[in-house]
Amino acid sequence: MTTTDTPQRRRHSHLDPRTSMTLARTEHARTVDALRALGPDDWARPTSCPEWDVRQLACHMVGMAEFPSSPIEIARQQRKASAVHARRGGPAVDGLTQVQVDERADWAPDQVVLGAVRAAPRSVRGRRWISACAGRAPLPGTQPVNGREESWSVGYLLRTILTRDPWMHRTDLSAATGRPMTLTPDHDGVIVDDVVAEWAERHGRPYQLELTGPAGGSWRRGDAELMTLDAVEFCRIISGRGIGVGLLETQVPF
Q1: Cα separation of 254 and 251, whole Å?
Q2: Are 115 and 124 in contact (CB under 8 A)?
Q3: Mean pLDDT confidence for 150-163
Q4: Which of 12, 104, 188, 213 could be disulfide-bonded to 59 (CB atoms 3.0-4.6 Å)?
Q5: Which DSSP symbol is given to 107?
Q6: Model-level pTM?
Q7: Phi, psi dihedrals of residue 208, rounded to the nearest 5°
């Protein structure tokens, strides 16, 4: 597949600051609602993240929400993640997520929900402040996407990825438990539209896409065969949670 990305071209968020923080606030609120809706039997169910059950996935979600709450918390988590990465190897982000889960290994479901409630406002404040001060600065290191290493800005992480991440994990919670996922055009539709725009930019080829459901819509560039999918299914495929063929082989980070 072709791509327009190179390691020398730093990726920035396409979302303006106001929109990105509105999405962040709403997504954190919906995460809390999704966790509160879980039943006693749901927390031990396996998820699409092979090493985690629902409780462990939720612990990661809380930890990642706390991550951007302050420069001190970012440094603390990164320091511990570096130690894990030195022992285990693999992608650096795996060390970070492992720290987030391990630090909450003894949390009961009620503690996880309370942690999500407390983390939400701190996360939004930290993301707003840090992205305003350093949004265009380079994020240290490179990120592997579609078999290539690319450079991200701090703003891309804070304004885009840290909203996509809990959104995708809400789809994981729904898939694991069978509980419906809250979806609306004014929130989820905006996230999906941004994902589609980045996906189209990454593959750089003509396409015609129709996504169904409350978060769906229609997109087109040039002449191409129509692809029709559910909006959530589309995002899960290009996140790597499903097997994509053709243009759907091009992945987008979440």
Answers
A1: 9
A2: no
A3: 97
A4: 104
A5: -
A6: 0.94
A7: -140, 120
